[in-house]
Amino acid sequence: xxxxxxxxxxxxxxxHDVVFDYYGRRMATCSSxxxxxxxxxxxxxxxxxxxxxxxxxxxxWRVSWAHPEFxxxxxxxxxxxTASVWEEVLGEKVGxxxxxxxxxxxxxxxxxxxxxxxxxxxxxxxxxxxxxxASADGVIRIYEAPxxxxxxxxxVQHEITNKLPLSCLSWxxxxxxLSSQLLAAGSDETATATGKVFIFAYSENARKCVKxxxxxxxxxxxxxxxxxxxxxxxxxxxxxxxxxxYIVNIRGTSDATGTSKLDIQTxxxxxxxxxxWRVCWNMFATMLISTGDDGCVRIWRMNYSKKWKCAAELKxxxxxxxxxxxxxxxxxxxxxxxxxxxxxxxIISNPNQVPWH
Amino acid sequence: MEDEQxxxxxxxxxxxxxxxxxxxxxFVCGSxxxxxxxxxxxxxxxxxxxxxxxxxxVKIHLLQPEFIFDDPILRSLIAEANSTFVALQSLKRxxxxxxxxxxxxxxxxxxxxxxxxxxxxxxxxxxxxxxxxMYQQYISIFYSIECVWHLxxxxxxxxxxxxxxxxxxxxxxxxxxxxxxxxxxxxLLMGRDASDSEEYWPALKGLVLxxxxxxxxxxxxxxxxxESAAFKMTEQILKAMPTFNVxxxxxxxxxxxxxQYWLTDTERKLTANILAVEPNLEELVQLIIGDTQTWNxxxxxxxxxxxxxxxxxxxxxxxxxHFELGTAANSWLDRWARMKTQQGKEPQLKHLDKVILSLMExxxxxxxxxxxxxxxxxxxxxxxxxxxxNCGQLQVVGExxxxxxxxxxxxxxxxxxxxxxxxxxxxxxxxxxxQFCSEEGLAALELCxxxxxxxxxxxxxxxxxxxxxxxxxxAEQEICKVQAKQSLDDERYGNALxxxxxxxxxxxxxxxxxxxxxHYAKTGDMLCPDIIANIGAKMFISPRxxxxxxxxxxxxxxxxxxxxxxxxxxxxxxxxxxxPEYFWPSLLIDTIPLLESKDPKILSKETTAILHHLxxxxxxxxxKKKKRLxxxxxxxxxxxxxxxxxNIEEIINLLRLACARNLSRALIIxxxxxx
Lengths: 357, 675
Prior knowledge:
heterodimer, A: mainly beta, B: mainly alpha, 30 helices, elongated
């Protein structure tokens, strides 16, 4: 059972992305109304908007927070073919005693793309202050701010052109082994039946980022993908939202000659039984959320033998104001599954019936 | 694995109905989730306001799974249990049976104490208030936990050598159904008047149903008619009843024949209607001889299927062993259910009932599965599984037959620990669970430590201390850098520099030193002088910081009008090769007043050196920039950003002139002195 708090966000149109900062205490939202809003959680756990500005001249697809060691920095990308970097700064002091207001300033606008910029994401911090963008013409650009104290200067470090339009990208945050400098991108192209997820790595020899693999098991259009945060695992997990939900395990192996290659194992989960739009991991990669076209948000859990199972479904319910479970009849299966029912409230269905002497 | 019913929850969001009820979900931190109405778009979607723009309110729903340990009473439970958990780990799976039984009892006494506190709290809360209901719910949760834990302890931890379990099961039901015992105590205190009490016979029957024949006899003795024939006969029967005792020296066969002899004798007496005058006494004896009718009548009045099972076993199968318990329990349960159905009641097994059955059946998989659903945020399943694992009693055969116990236990600890870690107030308790579960646990711990929102410097120091103890240098560095950046953003420059130095990250320190130097070059204002003055040997972490500190020393001498050492330091700095490019103009300009001093502060040799630096460092730099400027006229040129090109040339001319003049003065003086 959940405690639910609903916030009216005051965007004038649908939200496309909601992203939380490193600590989960700040929230950035972006919408078709071309604005970005920043929300802060106070000590009582209430969220309030602290900044709101028109950031683009088109719908904003995505937002991404930089790691806090680079400051309060945000990147946005939009239908208007640009991506921007924003930084929160201390404003001018108003009055003597007042704490100066904070405000967000545009540090740079990246105009290299000739088509809609569909995804933007800061790289894991150990690579420095890097930002990757994907665009509808199939180009991935990796920008770098060489001076982390000066966010107005970004230069294109790598530009990778792909044949297919790109809809999403994700950095691998893991530092495990060399195979880790991976970036994955997905394409939502519908016409061809080729692999739609590509994996890139930095090649020391070529001194540039190159495509190292294509996941050929996934040929349907891909709308979102995400590398799982890696806490101590020896392999990488990539969740892919396509016609179904895929969880891809990637292991870096090297053969006798010392050339490394990727061992890719794809697991398809057909529970949604219709296209999946978004995927999101929790911070330990023990849970995954998938958003499907069937109107269901599914919460997946990994059990102790590293198998994924759907643990709960969240459904939109337009009619009533009720947050009560629509279906919550506990059943005790005879199976030996130990998938936890994390979200189910105590199955002591009527607590008063439990003996107390 | 079979399909299970998946919990489904509904969220009201009118906007989402416009887009086929689509909601998108995001994790916040821990297990908190944010949901919002979602409209899928692709690059080919036309970008225009949707038809519903500005009509329906756009909402975000934040969902947090219920978490019970924020309550102060349960918080103390979790804290106390945590120290027991740590004590258990320190045994390193090598403890004795007694050690583990003791740990188990400690856990149980913690639960018991907690239950009492909850009872008090529920008593104080207003009836039917929200608080009252909440405490009632906690009570029922932890009551179930206590009951299951107790039974688990009997079955898995505190086994008798012969594996006979009936005496312990009797203890278990007495503990959890103490009504009969309580009444008996009252009656014994009342002495002769006891028989007048309405509770007299119910208490006696209750005692016998729980196998407490001796106490029952004592109460019977207090009856005024204790000397009557019926009472005397009953006493005689009860006294003669053979009891099975593991340590009694009897073999089970011998006991059985004794029992049979006594049984036949007693049955004969009952058939002879010896006790017919006292139906209550007769009923007691009938219970003792396991008379079906009489037991069935009591089943009708029982709410819990297991309530009379141990008593029944005591009279009918006292040597029942652990492995036989499952069969006995099932046949008893069938009988119980049959009686209930005959009574017209639907025999419904509640969650606790099922867990108890599974335990008796020794179906650990099912038990562990079921106790995850206790609504206690996995507290019980984690601690019990860990305890059973530690004492070698966890037997879960997984798909691959092997190694699943440790995996199961680790994943439970991981889950429980990481859940606590993401709670503001409980992260220190969560640490212990992650520390004791595999390498993934440690990695998660490191990650969690960096994600604790730090509010004060003191808190930061505390977390750093933990990182150092745990040997997490990366986390340490990350925390320091975040603190440095935060201080910098808040314009607390001294703090920022100190945190950067603490991070031991050369690049980061360099970039902050750069920031301070550039600020000085631009404004002539030295930020955070106190901190720079006290950096000391720590400056060697970054050449740039060394430069900053040394330059600051020069700056101090100069301000104190201590020109000779200032000049010496300056010349050293020029020679040092650690001068950042952007600082050359500033540094050379600093030399002008010293060079122009009427009484020379800089010797001829040093003056030549300055001249040399000017010609070999700054001039080429400027030439380079000039060329670049010609090539790309629009590009901003960093180094000369604060100096316009014509100004720079003027500065260079001034410098050359100053050098020449000083050189002449110095040469004259030097030569005069030598002469």
